[in-house]
């Protein structure tokens, strides 16, 4: 299953924490036992064969049914306490985050919450690999394995070195940033993520890259120490202060949307209850997030 997700022996072996040679041997042994070839291999690419694609699809269905059966069986145990593992990137949903968790705990007092801090390069991988049950993260991203539920949208700001000529400006345009060197997301970030924050749609090509980073902390250091620029959601500008970074309103930038994401295959009730908690928190507390407006489902 892991090789079908990554189509890369080295990456799949790394995620399974075994040597690539041992991983390759397991795949080859499975193909011999089945009597079919599941993967086409060449020096430059790995691809599922038609029979391999059918095998993986059926295996995923069986595993999902097994997970459902196990979850249902556990609900009959009076001593069982379910756990909801929530992954959060950076500021998550800002000031709304504790409201969401508080509402969820009222809805499901039987569920224990566990929170994991994510980086921009593992936020999607942690979800699809079942390390967390759902995440609160920033769009845009697309993946046919997950269900995305927008929470709210808000303006973006430019994050500039404090010494930048525009650092004390009341507001600037995206066009003012297009020739600047950006701190960009490192490899592993969701597809389309880096180009959104660096305004590639306005530029029509990739930005100049000052450095590649994995976390908000690294972004702030790159901006304050390396002369890079970036765009941030307005919430992040409120919550992440740095003496070497100035935040300047960017009124013509496309707004930023924060959302929850969960695996499409996960139909457990205590996971779906999180969407109810989010909706109630938005209804009652969204006014506490300056500049935020209710986001529309895609």
Characterization of this structure:
Helix content is 38%, strand content 24%. The chain is built from eleven helices and 13 strands. The longest helix has 25 residues, at 50-74. The model has no long low-confidence stretch (mean pLDDT 88). The relative contact order is 0.16. The chain has a six-stranded mixed beta sheet with strand order 4-3-5-12-6-13. The protein has a three-stranded antiparallel beta sheet with strand order 10-7-11. With 298 residues, the chain is α/β, with parallel strands linked by helices. Helix 2 (9-16) packs across helix 3 (20-34) and helix 5 (97-107) crosses helix 11. It is globular, with a radius of gyration of 22 Å.
- Kindly report the average pLDDT value: 88
Strand content: 15-25%
Distance between the termini: 29 Å
C-alpha Rg (nearest Å): 22 Å
Name the poorly predicted regions: none
- Compute the number of strand runs: 13
Q: Which SSEs are present, and which pair or pack?
A:
Elements: H1 2-6, H2 9-16, H3 20-34, E1 39-41, E2 46-48, H4 50-74, E3 82-89, H5 97-107, E4 111-118, H6 123-128, E5 134-138, E6 146-154, E7 156-161, E8 181-185, H7 193-197, H8 200-203, E9 208-213, H9 216-226, E10 230-233, H10 234-239, E11 245-249, E12 256-263, H11 269-285, E13 293-294
Parallel strand pairs: 3-4, 3-5, 8-9
Antiparallel strand pairs: 1-2, 5-12, 6-12, 6-13, 7-10, 7-11
Helix pairs in contact: 2-3, 5-11
Task: Provide tags for this entry.
single chain; 298 residues; alpha/beta; six-stranded mixed β-sheet; three-stranded antiparallel β-sheet
Task: Briefly characterize the structure.
This protein has 298 residues and is an alpha/beta fold.
């Amino acid at each position: 299953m892991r090789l079908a997700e990554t189509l890369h022996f080295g990456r799949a072996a790394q995620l399974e924490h075994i040597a690539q040679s041992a991983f390759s041997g397991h795949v080859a042994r499975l193909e011999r036992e089945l009597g079919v070839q599941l993967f086409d291999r060449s020096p430059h690419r790995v691809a599922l064969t038609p029979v391999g694609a059918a095998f993986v699809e059926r295996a995923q269905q069986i595993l999902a049914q097994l997970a459902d059966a196990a979850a249902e069986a556990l609900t009959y145990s009076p001593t069982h306490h379910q756990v909801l593992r929530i992954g959060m990137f950076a500021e998550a949903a800002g000031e709304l985050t504790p409201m969401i968790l508080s509402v969820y705990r009222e809805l499901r007092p039987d569920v224990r919450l566990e929170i994991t801090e994510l980086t921009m390069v593992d936020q999607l991988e942690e979800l699809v690999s079942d390390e967390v049950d759902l995440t609160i993260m920033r769009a845009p991203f697309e993946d046919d394995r997950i269900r995305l539920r927008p929470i709210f949208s808000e303006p973006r700001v430019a994050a500039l070195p404090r010494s930048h000529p525009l650092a004390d400006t009341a507001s600037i345009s995206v066009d003012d940033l297009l020739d600047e060197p950006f701190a960009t997301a490192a490899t592993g970030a969701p597809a389309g993520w880096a180009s959104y924050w660096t305004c590639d749609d306005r530029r029509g090509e990739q930005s100049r890259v000052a450095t590649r980073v994995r976390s908000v902390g690294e972004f702030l250091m790159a901006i304050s120490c390396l002369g890079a620029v970036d765009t941030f959601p307005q919430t992040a500008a409120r919550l992440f202060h740095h003496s070497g970074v100035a935040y300047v309103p960017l009124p013509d930038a496309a707004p930023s949307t924060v959302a929850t994401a969960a695996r499409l295959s996960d139909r457990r009730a205590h996971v779906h209850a999180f969407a109810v908690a989010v909706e109630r928190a938005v209804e009652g507390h969204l006014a506490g997030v300056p500049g935020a407006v209710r986001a529309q489902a895609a």
